[in-house]
């Protein structure tokens, strides 16, 4: 229904509006660039003759010009290239165990993956006498100072379960009645 209403207003007095637009005086066009006028002048015989005529003075000057082109010698950079690594990084295989599918397979020496970090932190937390900082540094190819900082500042989460007695004690309390 709405389309019919808009169509009525759109088609109202169309012929009169169209004739009014057609009868308007046309605006004068903008002046053309002078290069467009050169095309008209190029058809004249004087300009064609001037273009095709050879000038002896310019020809002698052109004959005196001699251009010699040489490629510069190729230089080899001594640094082995700025974009290429000068030293190949040593990589080691990760020690992941049952979490093998979750992490990367090769890690540069001196670094550890996220799963390895969580594993070594958990091992140190559960058995600190066996998993000392020295053993962890040797096992994962890390510096002792970094391992000490890691063990000092990062602690894995601990899951704590409450005994059943405390659960009963919490649920067995009866709410107080307001009087």
UniProtKB/TrEMBL annotation:
<dbReference type="GO" id="GO:0005739">
    <property type="term" value="C:mitochondrion"/>
</dbReference>
<comment type="subunit">
    <text>Binds calmodulin. Interacts with NDUFAF3.</text>
</comment>
<dbReference type="InterPro" id="IPR009622">
    <property type="entry name" value="NDUFAF4"/>
</dbReference>
<dbReference type="GO" id="GO:0032981">
    <property type="term" value="P:mitochondrial respiratory chain complex I assembly"/>
</dbReference>
<feature type="compositionally biased region" description="Basic and acidic residues">
    <location>
        <begin position="17"/>
        <end position="27"/>
    </location>
</feature>
<comment type="similarity">
    <text>Belongs to the NDUFAF4 family.</text>
</comment>
<feature type="region of interest" description="Disordered">
    <location>
        <begin position="17"/>
        <end position="42"/>
    </location>
</feature>
<dbReference type="Pfam" id="PF06784">
    <property type="entry name" value="UPF0240"/>
</dbReference>
<protein>
    <recommendedName>
        <fullName>NADH dehydrogenase [ubiquinone] 1 alpha subcomplex assembly factor 4</fullName>
    </recommendedName>
</protein>
């Amino acid at each position: 229904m709405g389309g019919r209403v808009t169509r009525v207003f759109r088609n109202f007095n169309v012929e009169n509006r169209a004739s009014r637009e057609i009868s308007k005086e046309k605006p004068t066009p903008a002046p053309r660039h002078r290069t467009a006028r050169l095309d008209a002048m190029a058809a004249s015989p004087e300009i064609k003759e001037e273009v095709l005529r050879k000038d002896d003075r310019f020809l002698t000057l052109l004959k005196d010009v001699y251009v010699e082109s040489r490629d510069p010698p190729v230089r080899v950079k001594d640094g082995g290239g700025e974009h290429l690594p000068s030293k190949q990084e040593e990589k080691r295989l990760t020690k992941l165990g049952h979490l093998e599918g979750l992490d990367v397979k090769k890690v540069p020496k001196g670094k550890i993956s996220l799963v390895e970090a969580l594993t070594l932190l958990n091992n140190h937390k559960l058995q600190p006498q066996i998993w000392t900082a020295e053993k962890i540094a040797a096992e994962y190819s890390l510096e002792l100072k970094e391992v000490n900082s890691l063990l000092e500042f990062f602690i894995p989460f601990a899951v704590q379960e409450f005994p059943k007695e405390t659960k009963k004690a919490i649920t067995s309390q009866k709410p107080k009645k307001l009087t």
